[in-house]
Amino acid sequence: MGDSGEGLIDAESRIEERREELQAERQLTQKSSKKNPELLRQLDSLGLARTQLSRQLDGATHETRRTQISNAITDIDLRIAELKEEKQR
Question: Where are the domains of the chain?
């Protein structure tokens, strides 16, 4: 029974982290939603892709696949950072 409780705690912490990410994204998009809609579309798309890959990583059991997914998430994070930097200019 202890394992199920730990699973709930993990799920709650992931939900809370995602809420915080969404809140930060909303604040960022509200500030500059009129500046460059294409840039915002790209950021949204990358955010969705990252979320999907994170879910895949949670379910992946084979180490090679986990490495591939982790590398893809890292690449997306870099692209998001580049777009956010571009957005601030």
Answer: 2-88
